[in-house]
Amino acid sequence: MSEERLDQALEALRNEPVPTGEMAAAQERVLRKLMGQVPSLCMEFQAELPAYLRGELAENRRALMDDHLGRCAECRRIYAEAKGERKVVVLPAVAVRKPRPVWQRWALAASIGLVALYTGRDRIDGLLAPSGPRATLERASGQVYGLTDTAMGAGATLADGQIVRTGAGSHAVLRLADGSAVEMNERSQLFVHAAWSGATVQLDRGDVIVQAAKQRRGHLKVRTRDSEASVKGTVFAVSTGMNGSVVAVVEGAVEVDQPNFNKTLKPGEIAGSTSALSGVTAQEAVAWSAEKEKYFALLAEFSKLEKQIAALPTPAMRTQAKLVAYLPSNVMAFGAAPNISGTLEEAERLAEQRAEQNATFAEWWKSDKGQKVREMLGKVEAVMPLLGDEIGFVLAQGPAGEHDRVAFVIAEVNTGQQAAVRKALAPMVEGVNFGVNDKVVVITDNQAHLLWAMGQLGQGATSAFAAEVAQHYQRGVGWMLGLNAQAFQMSSTEKAGALTGGVPLKTVFFELRSKDGSQENEATLNFAGARAGIASWLAPAGASGASEYITSDALMAFSGSTKEPSQMFTEITNLMGTMDDKFKTHLDEAQAKLGIDIGKDLASALGTDFAVAIENASLPIPGWIAAAEVYKPGTLDGTIAKLVDAHNAELPAEYQSRKLVMGQQTIEGRLWMTIKAAGAPMTLYWTYDRGYVVMSTDLGVAQRALKTRDGGFALTRSAKFVQYMPASAGVHPSGFLWLNMKGALEGLTAVVSNDALKSIAQDRDPILVVVSGETERIRVASRTRLTSLILDGMLAGTAADASSMKLNRKIQKNAASN
Domain Putative zinc-finger spans what residues (predicted)? Predict the structure, then answer.
């Protein structure tokens, strides 16, 4: 019988009608056979079902009934019938199997083909990879081998899947076919597999640092036995060993896939594949690199070059807002810079001179990155002499609505130089669009934006933002960037956040000007009314007594004046209450547990003037000092005592040995309050002096602060501090930040044996940033060059990382020996 005829016969049997009586009788017979004789216990419970339904059973009997119904299917059936529920569930009819159409057979074949294609995609991906070597051994120090004992030297090439390994004390740098560099640590082994979607570095063991080139397609991947790092162009490190694998990011972003972990890491972040690697830091992951010494030396050369360029003559400040006349409507930002064509030529000459004097800088200057810098400078120098004394940058809301942004560069064209400008700009950058009329040149990213910008010139020249930009020219402009904050907020300026107390930020200006041979940077935040909310916490300019406790040798200091702390606490409480309706409840619970009222006991005891400083770079805890104005010393001491008691009360029984002990000592005739943890070597000292509390964990540092206030050499009266005080600071700024870069770097480099870094430390100037609060604005100013601020940040971070690594190694070595 054919399959089709069998299906027809089965369907006929299924559709044969059955009398209702016979069906019910058959169901009853089956049920009796399944259930058998009804047990006496069931009969007892079944007799009580009516009372159970009416809710008349006693509580203990009802509980027994619930338990029985949960176990007995037959009693549940009878109970369901008594309630009127259905006892027969109609099952859906079984679909008749029909022959598959021809198209389904082809679909099945296609599906099988797609599955085969998917499972073999990796092989196909590899077959489509470009031909040629997968990597070249660019540099090698020590012993570098292939799978055999044959040594490999610089210039050797690697085929797909060919293993390369480094011996003890050896390093190597591979250059992949896409331009990426892979630095190998000692005792490392890897191979490279190329594919159409990007190359994969398979790290079998050891450590690598990858400087990934920008990928034209796909991603560059580094795989270990339990991790995969995927990038399109960045710098990161991968290590794999006995305890698992670690991925650390130096710059850019890296997508990491590990067991129970998938995340995109940012610079400084690290991911370990096992819990045993949780203590590894990003700095330790790259500490082995042979390039770190070169990096220090290159920073030293950049530092010297930056100072030489800064000493070059700067263009005179401009007092006429010429480019404001060309602003379009809906301007969001306007920037202006002097035409520095002559300075660029001199900067390139100085760079060439440094390359002749220093081999490290020469290597960078002649590298691909250095070549690109030189090419860019050459193109800019070709067009700059043809333009006016100012180059402008404009960001405006475009014609397509709220999310359309048009950015363009604008400059006046010197008389009769229109044709020369067109010729100079034509080969500058691929994809750049520019337009030149009788007066200006406009450069933007696409033709549509160019046409809009050229047609909009001058439409926003009479706006309120344009008028404010013009005001800044009255006292002279060097470099300037103005942001129209209300344009960024669009039509929602009335919905200013609670952070500004309902008063929106109107404009923000950043300026750099040169005067009398010195530079001054300034940032101004302008509000659309009197400052409110958190923006009002900075007090107006006033004299500071707390800063007089800071010595002239301080490495870092921060001093400021605020509004009353009790007012600030109230505003914080209200702000947090609007963000979390349970905040005040949690605050009340915390205060009850601590036994204090933060507003009345702590905030009301403090004044509005404070200062914090690091006086020396001792490790592991620097010597610090803090001074703050105090209205109620007794209330402050009582509050601290309550906090100590609350801390001790919360300690678990096994940590009772760590209780805090509050006491007092009289030293050289002065009463000092103290807090010390039992068995800990460190003690917190504080005393009261002329309306201020002075505290430190180093008694010597605190005593020196008191002597400084008594007539010693305070920081604010030192020649260096006065020299770097901005002209716009006035007599009493609201606060300042001081960073003695020379002293800070010398302190950090005391644990780092690096001559280049120590040379940089000897050559750095201090940083002083001053902030002043006015009714409707906050002004921040500094005489430190902007380029120096950026470089100093790099140097401080590098030195701190280096010293931290050395300190960690020392601690680990001591721990191992003990």
Answer: 42-76
